[in-house]
Amino acid sequence: MRPACGFLVAGVYGAAAALTGGALAWTLWYGVREPANALAFGVFIAVGELARWGAPPGEREPAPLGAAGALAYALLGECAGQNTTHGVPQVVAVVVAAVLVGAVPHVARGSGPPLDHVARRVLTVGFAAVCFQPLFNSGALARWVGHGASYALFLLVLLLLIALCDAVLAAAMLHARTRYPYTPLLRDEIRALPGIGSAVCATGAVMALSVAVAGLWALPLFCVPLLLTQLSFRRYTAVRTTYRQIIASLARSTEIAGYTQPGHARRVAALSAAVGRELGLSGTELAVLEYAALMHDIGQLSLVDPVPDGATALLPVAEQRRIALLGGAVVRQTGVPAAVAVVVELQADPYREQPLPARIVRAVNAYDDLTGGSGGTAGRTLGALEQLRLGTGRDYQPEVVETLARVLARGGLAPVPPG
Questions:
Q1: Which of 44, 106, 183, 209 is the most exposed place for a label (fewest CB within 10 A)?
Q2: Taking the model in full, what pTM does it have?
Q3: Number of CB atoms found within 10 A of residue 44's CB
Q4: Contact (Cβ atoms closer than 8 angstroms) between residue 327 and residue 358
């Protein structure tokens, strides 16, 4: 990890630790205000952390129930019509204590919450509490905003700021861990906000408003449906992971049959995803890109004699096109989205007639073919990139080739968590 990235991670951890230490010290010194509220929300958050059990690595929000409960406590101004006075330090202290309690069973089985997750939770909740609690407790919020539609609009703006704060932190941590450029990572995080991020923010705000009217009885009413939703989403994620594993296993059939070099499909998929992220692809587009990269050589199974080293980039264009069309026909039988088959079928066409995922897969596949899978050799890497640049008139898009060169200069296959 580069020194600057190490300083960034240390800075985020240091800020979270300082906020946690100050909050715990303040709470211990002045005592817990409204202990019933603190206990109820603490239990709710701890249950949410316990429900993180079985979350796959890299999941964007592994404990949405706990995140919603923490945000609700940060935005809590009233309970059953009575003003609350717990303040910012107590919010942070309760959230940290609840996260630690909920993490105990996970730690016992060797799968405690990542420090990045805990640091983000602390800083995001602290930001939310700082933006809301002083304004509400001082009466400034009631004087400036009042109630009704204006109060709802204030909460909406505040939720957008909170979501943006979490996206900035998440992108910063991914930048430090993966060495990918910060701007594309931030763009990915912002694009993901309408998904789980908006659901967590909206649920937290509604919970805070419900407790303000109905009291703490509102918490169990939210807990059960949220838990069921979280478990259903976890099952969907498990099915999606299994589906990807099946695709990866099918892609390895060319290696097992001796048509391509070991690890070729996996290398092309990883490097294509890195290039695609830097070029602005995300979500469904990245999934199509990854599946197509894994299965781009499946058409070679139709050949009587394997291509030497599986290097289709060195074949005549007519033969490349025949293999690509056969591969697309096979892919269409697997049940993957039709866009994946299109990417595979167009591998031998001029890049101006290809969608961006096909341009990426073609350039990355050619690079791996030209280097023989040993892209770490500086001479081979430079030679392969030079050949790709010579082919930018027809075969390879110049922007894709230059993006590939930048990714390789940073290490190429640095892991990126799924989005």
A1: 183
A2: 0.76
A3: 24
A4: no
